[in-house]
């Protein structure tokens, strides 16, 4: 059988090739390498397939698209000398020189980790070494086309986002995390080093922010190592991944003493419609995680057409703390509910489940939300989501938002335009506290308008808020331009108020929205 590819004279050359690479997105790197090889010397089809690790039909397609720009000679195929510069410029045959060496990046990462928040055992935090974060970034750089890529990290206690942008400055990164401390730490470093990292707050157990659905070619996560945790993070990743060319990179490890657990997790990944493209053992190293040898593998997963994109809400995914699989929170008894009612001054027959993906509209009896397993961020988010005139929020007595006057003042500052808050510590019992919210009697201005509409897109709601609160008439265009001039990161305008990290929420409500 002939190995020669029939070349179409009117194929469009470099423009057709560039369009093909654009459609391939982050997975275009091996296709781009085909033309890098053809520019150096003649290669046979078999050599191109083997070196670039690309299916033969794809290589043949690329040569056909190039048309007369590729010539066939006795030694194979080669790019014509006359078009080398054109392809170098438009197809980017040359790999750009790194702006920082790997050693420089690892040194910076050590400083970033040392000044960052301590691991939270209740969220299964085990810190990866700076060398691991660098290794992850290098894997992305060496295996994917990152020039126009958008990487999503589901959780980033290990600061892989910063490592990736330091190594590949043209990469855009979005970080989703539950831990407000991590988001603030990443934001601070990204601003100092001018790195294109955008942070978003979410608890993946309750859902993925709508602005992050279907937009990413690459998703990375080092999730809780329970089957439930792996399953939840994988399903959320599938929601975030763009249809077509996308990959999930997942850190996961299990002990050689418990292969059944590893089997169960791998079965869960397969059930969710993922296929293992690569498994690199011993890829991730940790300060801790000694039960699994302080290492885990890198799973490179390709979603199939059967990839599951939703698992609903799930709380028990961790191995420690109040949200662990073993904790199994018990429903409150009648006496406990009666004590809550006595504190609230209203009969309480049930507690409402946590969650803030949708507005919490209530009617009738005063609602009380069960936040006993709150790791910290739930109280603020539930207050933003709730639109009741009066509501109660049951939290641990040592909740970080109520344990000191400073903490209480901080929460009051954030919610003051919407709610007046009363902190009843040690009630209904010594282990819990009840936060009672009463709708503020003041108008609240722009901040109040935003706080009462926490599920709308910030760009739209903020514009409406300015129009509603302006002393002089404002057109929609004028209000939009005013908002765009005030916002620090335009990506925030596509988020909901409820998705903003706490430190940026405070800035928006008091520094910018109040102007």
From TrEMBL:
Residues of the N(4)-bis(aminopropyl)spermidine synthase C-terminal domain: 109-298
InterPro entries linked to this entry: BpsA_C, rRNA_MeTrfase/Polyamine_Synth, SAM-dependent_MTases_sf
BP-aspect Gene Ontology terms: polyamine biosynthetic process
Transmembrane parts of this sequence: none
Name of this chain's protein: N(4)-bis(aminopropyl)spermidine synthase C-terminal domain-containing protein
A Pfam family this chain is assigned to: BpsA_C
A GO molecular-function annotation: transferase activity
Top-rank lineage group of the source organism: Bacteria
SUPFAM superfamilies assigned: S-adenosyl-L-methionine-dependent methyltransferases
């Amino acid at each position: 059988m002939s190995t020669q590819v029939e070349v179409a004279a009117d194929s469009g050359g470099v423009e057709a090739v560039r369009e093909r690479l654009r459609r391939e997105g982050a997975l275009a790197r091996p296709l781009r390498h085909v033309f890098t090889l053809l520019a150096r010397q003649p290669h046979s089809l078999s050599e191109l397939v083997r070196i670039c690790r690309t299916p033969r039909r794809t290589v043949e397609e690329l040569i056909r698209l190039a048309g007369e720009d590729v010539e066939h000679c006795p030694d194979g195929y080669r790019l014509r000398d006359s078009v080398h510069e054109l392809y170098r410029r438009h197809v980017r045959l040359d790999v750009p020189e790194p702006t920082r060496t790997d050693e420089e990046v690892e040194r910076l990462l050590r400083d970033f980790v040392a000044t960052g928040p301590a691991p939270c055992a209740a969220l299964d935090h085990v810190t990866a070494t700076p060398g691991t974060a660098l290794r992850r970034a290098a894997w992305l750089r060496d295996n994917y086309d990152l020039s126009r890529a958008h990487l999503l990290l589901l959780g980033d206690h290990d600061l892989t986002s910063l490592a990736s942008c330091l190594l590949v400055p043209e990469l855009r990164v979005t970080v989703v995390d539950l831990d407000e401390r991590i988001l603030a730490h990443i934001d601070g470093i990204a601003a100092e080093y001018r790195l294109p990292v955008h942070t978003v707050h979410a608890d993946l157990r309750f859902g993925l922010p709508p602005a992050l659905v279907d937009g990413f070619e690459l998703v990375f996560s080092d999730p809780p190592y329970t089957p439930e945790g792996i399953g939840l993070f994988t399903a959320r990743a599938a929601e975030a991944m763009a249809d077509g060319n996308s990959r999930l990179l997942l850190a996961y490890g299990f002990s050689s003493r418990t292969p059944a657990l590893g089997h169960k997790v791998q079965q869960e990944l397969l059930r969710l419609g993922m296929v293992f493209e690569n498994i690199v053992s011993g890829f991730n190293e940790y300060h801790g995680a000694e039960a699994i040898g302080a290492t885990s593998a890198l799973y490179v997963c390709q979603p199939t057409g059967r990839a599951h994109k939703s698992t609903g809400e799930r709380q028990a995914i961790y191995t420690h703390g109040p949200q662990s699989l073993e904790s199994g929170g018990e429903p409150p008894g009648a006496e406990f509910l009666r004590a809550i009612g006595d504190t609230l001054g209203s009969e309480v027959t049930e507690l409402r489940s946590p969650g803030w993906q949708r507005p919490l509209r209530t009617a009738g009896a005063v609602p009380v939300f069960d936040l006993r397993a709150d790791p910290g961020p739930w109280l603020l988010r539930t207050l933003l989501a709730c639109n009741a005139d009066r509501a109660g929020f049951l939290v641990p007595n040592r909740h970080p938002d109520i344990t000191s006057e400073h903490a209480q003042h901080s929460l009051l500052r954030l919610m003051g335009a919407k709610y007046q808050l009363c902190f009843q510590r040690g009630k209904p019992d010594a282990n819990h506290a009840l936060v009672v919210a009463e709708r503020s009697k003041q108008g609240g201005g722009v901040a109040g308008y935003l706080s009462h509409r926490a599920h709308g897109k910030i760009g739209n709601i903020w514009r409406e808020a300015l129009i509603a609160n302006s002393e002089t008439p404002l057109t929609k265009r004028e209000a939009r331009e005013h908002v765009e001039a005030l916002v620090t990161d335009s990506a925030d305008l596509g988020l909901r108020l409820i998705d903003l990290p706490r430190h940026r929420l405070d800035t928006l409500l008091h520094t910018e929205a109040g102007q």
